[in-house]
Design a protein that fits this description.
This protein is an alpha/beta fold. It folds into 2 domains: 67 residues; 257 residues, Type I PLP-dependent aspartate aminotransferase-like (Major domain) (Aspartate Aminotransferase, domain 2, 3-Layer(aba) Sandwich), CATH 3.40.640.10. It has 14 helices and 11 strands. Helix 4 runs antiparallel to helix 12 and helix 13 packs across helix 14. The longest helix has 36 residues. It binds pyridoxal-5'-phosphate. Pyridoxal-5'-phosphate (PLP) binds next to helix 6.
């Protein structure tokens, strides 16, 4: 016992030192840290090694080779840092080591996740009768929502998927935005939809589905829209498309991995207008809500549809429709809803709204000041995404890799309408206005350096 407590105290102390360093440590590791990863290339030991030694190796060789996505100047992939409240709850549930399958295996998990589910519906203002499954990712939750969609549409057509399977079932089609995130296509592929079953809905100049060119939808169609396009942060025009789709009897699913959170703040809520009319939604905690990773939600208006599609009741483990094992892919699972509960409790409605508003304001400042400095901004910045381009593909890519090399900040690159760009996502609770100023100064300095080098060539 004493050894165990000492090991845990050591882990806590190391974690605390790491957290204490995130303001100042390099954002992308340097070559020496990457080379240090060679220390993990050991043979599988025949006899067990002391746990304290493994922990020390993980920290000494591993921590320097992390990307500081838990810090203030990580602008990649729309992933926020972990809020202290959520990270602390995560540590405690790690010690509990509960299988949050159903109330029998963890009464506390069942209770707190039920509260978290209700709070999610309230803060996102989605139909209160919806079921909420706490899954690992928008990818996994997309699979669960789309499985519920498919089963429900087939049921309406008199086909019992559970009994009769897919072979011979009425053919369903799926309409997705041309700019839909790849993980929705992955979810569809896993569920057995081929390319021939998927119709791409053309988008307008902003990357939103154009309602005038929406493929014909009917009562055997699943329509997939998005709240927050991953490059631009744009929203599909929900009111028009959803009312057309619903009138035709289609199922509408919205991928709102990060964009759904725009709904939590009054000034940006209009972006999500009409979204509440959809049938299912996915969103992440580990993006804009700033929970630790492996935190996402599958939200389904028809609670029974999700509970029936995901049911895994067994003689020895049968749960209610609200049991998380009956709303997610996993049977054995950690209580992913608890860090969500902790984040929402610590922030409150006001705190979530402030987080969203601050990031949108910071993104707008980035766009304004970078444009004034001669960068091209390729999107209209309504959310927390800024798509930036320097004078050419080559300079754009060079600046991105120089930022990475500097260790000062990090963001990813992309191709937007055939041209190289970088994607700045503002979503960390740690990012201050000063961090935004530092990023702007760095980009302007590198742009100046690139120009001087072009001139001298
Ligand atoms: C719009 C959108 N959908 C889905 C995803 C995938 O989310 P996850 O990584 O949680 O599966 C992302 C991730 O960037 C995203 O931006």
């Amino acid at each position: 016992m004493q050894d165990e407590l000492e090991l845990m105290a050591d882990a806590d102390a190391r974690a605390a030192r790491y957290i204490g360093s995130v303001q100042t440590r390099r954002v992308f590791p340097d070559q020496e840290a990457l080379d240090g990863l060679g220390r993990f290339s050991e043979d599988l030991p025949k006899e067990g090694r002391p746990p304290a030694e493994g922990l020390a190796l993980l920290d000494d060789a591993g921590s320097p080779a992390t990307v500081t996505s838990n810090g203030p100047r990580y602008f990649g992939f729309v992933v926020g840092a972990a809020l202290p409240a959520a990270a602390a709850a995560d540590r405690l549930i790690g010690a509990w080591d509960q299988g949050a399958t159903l109330a029998m295996t963890s009464p506390v998990s069942a209770k707190v996740e039920e509260v978290a589910a209700q709070w999610i519906l309230e803060i996102l203002d989605l139909p209160r009768e919806s079921a909420v499954g706490f899954g690992t990712s928008a990818t996994a939750c997309g699979i669960t929502c789309l499985a519920a969609a498919r089963r429900s549409l087939l049921k309406k057509h008199g086909w019992n998927l559970d009994e009769d399977g897919l072979i011979g079932a009425p053919a369903l089609k799926v309409v997705v935005s041309e700019k839909i995130h790849i993980v929705v296509l992955k979810a569809l592929r896993i569920l057995g939809f081929g390319k021939k079953d998927i119709l791409l809905a053309p988008v307008d100049a902003f990357g939103r589905v154009d309602p005038a060119r929406l493929p014909v939808v009917d009562d055997k169609t699943i329509v997939c829209l998005q709240a927050g396009e991953v490059n631009t942060g744009e929203f599909d025009p929900f009111p028009e498309i959803i009312s057309t789709a619903k009138a035709a009897g289609a199922w509408v699913h919205v991928d709102g991995a990060f964009g759904l959170w725009a709904r939590a703040s009054a000034p940006s809520r209009h972006l999500t207008e009409g979204i509440e009319l959809a049938d299912s939604w996915t969103t992440d905690g580990h993006k804009w809500l700033n929970t630790p990773y492996d935190s996402a939600m599958a939200i389904c208006r028809d609670a029974d549809a999700l509970a029936e599609a995901m049911n895994s009741d067994a003689i020895y483990a049968s749960g209610s429709k609200k049991a998380q094992k009956n709303l997610t892919l996993e049977f054995s699972r950690r209580a992913r809803g608890i860090p969500v509960w902790a984040a929402l409790r610590a922030l409150g409605r006001t705190g979530v709204a402030e987080l969203v508003e601050r990031h949108i304001a910071q993104a707008k400042r980035l766009a304004t000041e970078l444009e004034a400095a001669g960068f091209e901004i390729l999107n209209r910045v309504a959310l927390n995404q800024v798509l930036v381009r320097a004078s050419s593909d080559q300079t754009t890519n060079w600046i991105r890799s120089e930022v990475e090399r500097s260790g000062e900040a990090w963001f990813g690159g992309t191709i937007w309408n055939g041209r190289a760009a970088f994607r700045l996502s503002v979503s960390s609770w740690r990012t201050t206005d000063d961090d935004i100023g530092r990023l702007i100064a760095l980009l302007i300095r590198l742009q100046g350096q690139a120009r001087r080098e072009e001139v001298s060539q």
